[in-house]
Design brief:
By secondary structure, the protein is an alpha/beta fold. The protein has two domains: 143 residues, Rossmann fold, CATH 3.40.50; 142 residues, Dihydrodipicolinate Reductase, domain 2, CATH 3.30.360.10. It is 32% helix and 21% strand. The protein is built from eight helices and twelve strands. The strands form two sheets. A six-stranded parallel sheet has the order 3-2-1-4-5-6, with helices on both faces. It has a six-stranded mixed sheet with strand order 8-9-10-7-11-12, with helices on one face. Helix 4 runs parallel beside helix 5. The radius of gyration is 20 Å and the shape is globular. The structure holds 1,4-dihydronicotinamide adenine dinucleotide. The site of 1,4-dihydronicotinamide adenine dinucleotide (NAI) has 27 residues, from helix 1 and helix 8. 1,4-dihydronicotinamide adenine dinucleotide binds next to helix 1 and helix 8.
């Protein structure tokens, strides 16, 4: 059984997701795409054997499309996720789900009201081998019978486009640490503090970079995050969980850097695609498999038949 997926946004990670869904993920194909950059959408559609639509909502409403991946900029996500729910179609929405709390709560409320779990957010770290090993160690009690005290996290990118803002460092980057902390610890975050440090000379004038974020969980665990979007040297994600009697750290996948001359060689990944490629694949595979025969009540399996019409929400454009 093959699930036909529609993809909104064919930029860096959108085109990457289209390639994975078309060539590597089993049981999935890309049937339709949309991007405001029509030349890019046409090229991606041609390579995938998909149709390029003139509007994002045409992808959502395309009768051949059974499930949707949202990979356009973050401020378009909430309205598109609502449109997918209205169409009764499962959606993998890249982070962030929304860029404001109100919009995120609106999507959540709509999903709860629908009675169906249709929305998955692209938190691929839950599918990363290193994160999974860290969680297994934590759950085994190996670092102190699950009594966690502190998480130290680092999220560094080599550079960002000029339009990247200080708030996006939180909604686009630290959002991964927020999700990872909730998933690893199994509890909610109840307090947040953001501290701005001395600015990197490589940060654009409007950008606070780096920033430090302190999250506090319900049981009092402190999650300390350094987010640095212009570190220049590579894509560097780290995490150490400190327990009462030990610690466990995220393993960085080994690379081909030579160890020689008294130096232990380990190259830093260039970008998110290199570091988390395996996790994106596992995430898309599990999601598209779950979109297969009949997991969504009210939908006719495999036909893409939408539920009865309901009001069309505001477009994400
Ligand atoms: P990008 O800037 O490379 O691509 C965005 C694409 O969306 C562009 O092709 C642009 O023309 C298109 N676009 C702009 N407005 C649109 C609209 N209203 N409707 C449809 N398309 C529109 O950005 P990138 O890096 O591909 O990021 C896209 C999303 O994926 C963002 O939400 C980002 O946070 C997320 N992302 C997630 C990652 C992860 O690790 N899970 C990694 C990288 C990005």
């Amino acid at each position: 059984m093959t699930v036909t997926v529609g993809v909104v946004g064919t930029g860096s990670i959108g085109s990457d997701h289209v390639r994975r869904l078309s060539a590597r993920v089993s049981g999935a194909r890309v049937g339709a795409v949309f991007d405001v950059d029509t030349a890019r959408a046409d090229a991606v559609a041609a390579a995938a054997g998909a149709r390029a639509h003139a509007d994002a909502l045409d992808v959502v409403d395309d009768p051949a499309v059974e499930a949707v991946v949202i990979v356009s900029p973050g401020d378009t996500h909430a309205a598109l996720a609502l449109a997918c729910m209205t169409a009764g179609k499962p959606v993998l929405c890249e982070k962030p789900l929304a860029t404001t709390g109100i919009d995120a709560l609106t999507v959540l409320a709509a999903e709860v009201a629908s009675g169906r779990r249709l929305v998955q957010v692209g938190f691929m770290r839950r599918f990363d081998a290193g994160y999974l090993r860290m969680k297994a160690a934590l759950d085994s009690g190996a670092i102190g019978e699950a009594l966690v005290l502190v998480l130290h996290c680092i999220h560094r990118n080599p550079a960002v486009p000029p339009a990247f803002t200080s708030d996006m460092a939180l909604t686009d980057s630290v959002i991964h640490e927020i999700d990872a902390a909730r998933w690893l610890l199994g509890e909610e975050i109840v307090g947040t503090t953001v501290v701005r440090t001395r600015r990197s000379p490589f940060a654009a004038g409007h950008l606070a970079d780096p920033q430090l974020v302190l999250l506090v969980t319900g049981s009092g665990v402190v999650v300390e995050v350094e987010v640095f979007r212009n570190c220049r040297y590579g894509y560097d994600v780290r995490c150490e969980i400190v327990g009462a009697t030990g610690t466990v750290s995220l393993e960085v996948p080994t690379t081909g850097a030579p160890t020689t001359g008294g130096v232990l060689g380990r190259a830093v990944p260039a970008d998110w695609g290199e570091r988390f490629g395996g996790a994106y694949h596992a995430e898309l595979q599990q999601w598209s498999t779950a979109c297969g025969p009949a997991p969504w009540p009210g939908r006719t399996p495999g036909t893409g038949t939408p539920p009865p019409p309901s009001p069309r929400p505001t477009s994400g454009r």
